[in-house]
Design goal:
By secondary structure, the chain is α+β, with helices and mostly antiparallel strands. The protein has two helices and six strands; from the N terminus they run ββββααββ. Helix content is 16%, strand content 30%.
Amino acid sequence: MSKKPSKSKTSPSLQLGRAVEWPDAPEKAKLDRVPNPQAGTDYLVRFTVPEFTSLCPVTGQPDFAHLMIDYAPGQWLLESKSLKLYIASFRNHGAFHEDCTVMIGKRIASEIKPKWLRIGGYWYPRGGIPIDVFWQTGRVPKGLWVPEQGVAPYRGRG
């Protein structure tokens, strides 16, 4: 006798497993967290966002970045669908590179309270100058393996 697949075990308040509208601004986006089943173990989670977009707050022209988000979870994990929706909410948001990068790091840290988090924002050049922005919450937990982010400095046609 076969069992029927069980219904999703996600909370009805989570965006996971159901259709939701795309938020049109970062402050309207909801970041979901789920319990960390390995909370007693130090490990690293990496989210790679190779196609981040926002708008220049002065000219309205698009800005593009490759974001790398590393964190050591505590009691909570960041739910990836909610991260995707949050990241997409920046597409029509006007802010400088530094503001976008730090704002994302601080918001994630505030929501999931990781043991440690860092974000690298590797911005593609506009006006001939690439800008890289880095932010972290403190010291890396002792013994945690943290690989390099692996995004090469911008070389152009070098």
